[in-house]
Amino acid sequence: MAFGFLIVSRLLPLVRMFGRLPDGSSRAFAAVLNAGTRPFHSINYLGPVGGALVFHDPRLTHQLDHTIARLHRRLDAESPEALARRMHFPVGWDPFFRDTMTLADVYAYGMQHYDFHREQLTIEV
């Protein structure tokens, strides 16, 4: 869950920047990223494995609390115009990435990511 929210923190500046540029800029950026989907999946696997060695137990809890609080403060400060900014995303990278996503969509991504993995790990009794 923490890593999904950390990803949101990294995506927000990209959407803010590309949301101000011509549509073709983010389309080209997403195309380049999509071309690197295969190596991305290896990095996407190894990153959390390494991260779990550094961030665990109380340290992970603190990081998660800090990240969510920071995202909440930023979301509260966003204008409707900012939340409507959008950019193209590399749809091959994540099942929740759509061709274009708004800043509001990116804020919601953290919970989508969490809900998906929670469902994967939930055992029905």
Automatic annotation (TrEMBL):
InterPro entries (UniProt xref): DinB-like (IPR024775)
Residues in DinB-like domain copies: 59-121
The name this protein goes by in its record: DinB-like domain-containing protein
Natural source organism: Terrabacter terrae
